[in-house]
Amino acid sequence: MKLKSMDISATASASTIVFNALRKAIIEGQLEEGEPLRQDEIARLFNTSRIPVREAISRLQEQGLVRTQRYKGAVVAGLSPKETAEIFDLRALVEPEIIRDAVPRMSKELLAEAREKCAAFSSATDPMAYGDLNRDFHETLYSASELKFFQEIADNAIDRVERQIRAQLVMSNGMERAGREHFGILEACENGDADLASKLTRDHIQGAKASLLKHLKQD
Amino acid sequence: MKLKSMDISATASASTIVFNALRKAIIEGQLEEGEPLRQDEIARLFNTSRIPVREAISRLQEQGLVRTQRYKGAVVAGLSPKETAEIFDLRALVEPEIIRDAVPRMSKELLAEAREKCAAFSSATDPMAYGDLNRDFHETLYSASELKFFQEIADNAIDRVERQIRAQLVMSNGMERAGREHFGILEACENGDADLASKLTRDHIQGAKASLLKHLKQD
DNA sequence: ATATTGAATATTGGATCCAATCTGGTTTAT
DNA sequence: ATAAACCAGATTGGATCCAATATTCAATAT
């Protein structure tokens, strides 16, 4: 008798677990900019040795989420206002292309799911959840696209400014404006208007950039 | 007596040396697609232990240059024709923006250097050097741009298709056409015409993509 | 002959130990 | 008092060793 193939979900390696946990902690702002990542301390936290921690850190460095100096260790990477602006410009270039590719591939089910997430975002009351709900909505729409490298770029770019996005959402009008723009993007998707969805996505990102930069004085 | 601060050029760590060497070997095609990277073998090659090798491999994985499977190791990543096409589309989106940003920042010296490299490319006779000379020309122009994240994206994208670019250059007309287009781009830069330089860069990339895809049957 | 089992080998993932470098406070010379 | 020299702890980079898993191939059963 033959058994089903079962796929034991491949319990991730320690280095991957540490990598994901640190990445999450960084983009959610639980670890502040400039805060040093002590290998020993992290290893104890995860009940492992420093080896998988070092692998995780080197991957985070490759993603630009931490900076390391030889014999001095890694610190959470911060962004200058100029760098933040550049990341938003990159997003404003790439993400409209993703959604343009995605629109003709969106199923009824996906659009229904997106509508739910759009509503969940607009009715959210816990500021801690704003960031996740926002990202959840956008990624749902993007997931219909087959442009996986574009999505990699967008994911990484969003990672790098996730903290600023969260800050922007709790600013006055942040949630209200984002919610309105989300509905507009969603509607364009439902109407199959890829060009409009693309344009609204670009406006959404550039609006967030402008709103954010107003609050960042120095350079 | 005090010594000059001397900056011993920070003799890179072993893991960085291995990372750079492997990256170079992969993008130059010395390691073929699907070829497994044996930690032990690489460690012996560089007279180190497997620890820095593993760090190097995890960084290469993060860059998409290798794929790894748990307990099975890493293999050099290959690209399907569809993936190759997507990378070229990404380049065609990002690199025109880089050169648009770069043109108004190009000094006389930089333009002279670019002209030399353009000529060096056109008069090259060694097919082994085509790839380096091509990249050298483009990176010289791009280096005037202040968009460092855009450049990161472009660098990584070029890394991933470097082998195909080299193949395309040795194909009939490859060098001749590229050389002609390089001169066009350079001229636009010298004339300070950022829009034209941007457009020609996009055409250059899309032309390379088209020429390449004609030779890739399956998907 | 073919397919399955199982042991030997190869290879990766991780832990522990050592060496190299950094950091901070203390000492010492002027 | 100030600044250079220096010593001790902290921290990172790397080597060696062990455990977990994969792969290969011979032995066996059908």
From TrEMBL, chains A, B:
Family annotation (SMART domains): FCD, HTH_GNTR
Claim: Transcription regulation is one of the keywords in the record: yes
InterPro entries to which the protein is assigned, alphabetical: GntR_C, TF_FadR/GntR_C, Tscrpt_reg_HTH_GntR, WH-like_DNA-bd_sf, WH_DNA-bd_sf
Domain HTH gntR-type: 12-79
UniProt keyword list: DNA-binding, Transcription, Transcription regulation
Source organism, top-level taxon: Bacteria
Protein name: GntR family transcriptional regulator
